[in-house]
């Protein structure tokens, strides 16, 4: 059941009379019909700390290569991508505080990527290399030598993107974490019939 | 001298405080952890609002468990270590703060049925409870009516109904799973949750933010700081002292509990308090630890069974994937109630349903739809815009079946004792846990995994690889900040298979001071009073002679209510 604004007002007026409700209802009513609005309207902005973040873990050329790689994996299209989510910056931020083992894994991975020519390649060559590295996802019988590097970057990049506001709100339109007057029930009669 | 001192402020301690103060008794509550103010501590936060996106700075979650969102209401593992027997592992999920673990619990509020109270009569294993469902029903009614439980009244004999509030609606995946279970001929219903769907006893209804495990900011779910402690404090008969770490129960010469000694958390000063009744309600294992600390060989241990028959329901990975016909659907609020549907146990519940290959049972849960983080995404092949579209398409079609807890058999060889060497931050010996699973538990889990697959397929589900936090990142499996392991743990038990979850995962620990009709057979009587000491009560999971297959918290609270009635009857 989704309540109208008038119904929300009436419900809030009745419920606000309850003891203990005084602190709750202003916030609840302010966003009481959250699921009627786009999540982009309700969700707070991305905190600014990544906006001004300067990479400290990766050397500049490795960081540039990583950034290019993340943007190939999650490009900007009709929704934001890794660039807007600053995925490479976030990966650098996490790695600078990570375990020596993980840091070593990443340094080795980026060295291998450099050895394969990714750092100096043009956009088309980079896209082709990523495509070749990714082939192992479909056919694991003969994976590309850099398949583990592809998986390493893809895993961390996916996490960085889908935990960012760009990923959670703009790309996926997540509706939870909000104040709602009711829970929207399934309204598909066909779902009540087992297949 | 207080009328009663209650050690612990969780579900049972809060209930005891409510019952006794309303009857006019002067009660002192001692809580080892900090005071919690929901208005300051609990608020909605997206993953992107936290620096480490919920995983915590490396090292943080080894110390506190939980997540970056809720570690403040967890326990500091460095202050409060515990140990396990060599070659075994047990993850003890704990909180130390006002309200205890109910601040972040799963809210499942289940009545046990007579097939569980009388399980030994049905299959010949173990010991029946010293109470029946008829004994417990008035107390289930009382607790449920006060705290508010949203559920449907289903009429299942193995899952008794109560005075429920309206259930929460089902989302699309749950509706499909519900129809699938019906089609399989299984009992199925809403999960029963102490989470309000309407205003109740001065508390507002749930606003479906899905943050229950991080602490409810408005008190719409049950926990003592929102539900039982405010009215108890209002009587003027309750004093609460936080940061008070109880070290032992003190006895007098008349074989009665004189009171307890606690250590101030920060000054480390020892303080004695006296009371006519001592109630331990500090969680199952902390209660037993206190009894073991309070006398050589353990207080109230004439049976020799204190610490024995430790149990915890058994978890296991379920089935994760998508329901393809939901792919590409519109964005919906799917996880805002943090709930789901369930199938009550339908095997080994009477003589007609007995299995030959195992005894006892389990319940299953199912839900689906969007969640904040798409754990499956990194396992979707490919990259680029098409990959993004595929992730979004599957995002709203996620589906999962999981186990609500399988019964663990009571076995004497599963026990706890004091560790002779390791002490906590206050110099108090810690608990050492000896626990392994029996073949029966392995068979239950195997049966669950087969049934879960059957349910999932009947719903038209398509299995996908499970959630993936990046390997090596904070909080990920095997990372330096993965869930903390106890000291001296030597890892998984020998022979354990990857499909099994670590013991303790369910956080349903019970036993170690079981109830019995005869003092020879247990530590507590049917009122959770120690057989040996007339003014010493133990509220929590300690009294359970068996785990049953239901979530235990409601039964613990109902037992506490029954125990309080016994105290008040004696007072009259």
Task: Describe the model.
The complex is a heterodimer of chains A (195) and B (572). With 195 residues, chain A is mostly helical. Chain A contains 10 helices and no strands. The longest helix of chain A has 16 residues, at 100-115. Chain B has 572 residues and is an alpha/beta fold. Helix content of chain B is 22%, strand content 16%. Chain B has 12 helices and 18 strands. In chain B, α1 packs parallel to α12 and α6 crosses α12 (553-571).
Task: Please write out the topology.
The complex is a heterodimer of chains A (195) and B (572).
Chain A: H1 5-15, H2 24-30, H3 39-42, H4 60-73, H5 82-85, H6 87-95, H7 100-115, H8 123-134, H9 147-162, H10 165-171
Chain B: E1 2-7, H1 11-22, E2 27-30, H2 38-41, H3 60-64, E3 83-84, H4 114-117, H5 119-123, H6 133-147, H7 172-184, E4 189-190, H8 229-234, E5 238-241, E6 244-251, E7 257-264, E8 270-280, H9 284-293, E9 310-312, E10 319-322, E11 341-343, E12 362-368, H10 384-395, E13 398-406, E14 415-423, E15 429-434, H11 439-458, E16 462-463, E17 509-511, E18 536-538, H12 553-571
Parallel strand pairs in B: 1-2, 1-8, 2-5, 3-15, 8-18
Antiparallel strand pairs in B: 4-11, 6-7, 7-8, 9-17, 10-13, 10-16, 11-12, 12-13, 14-15
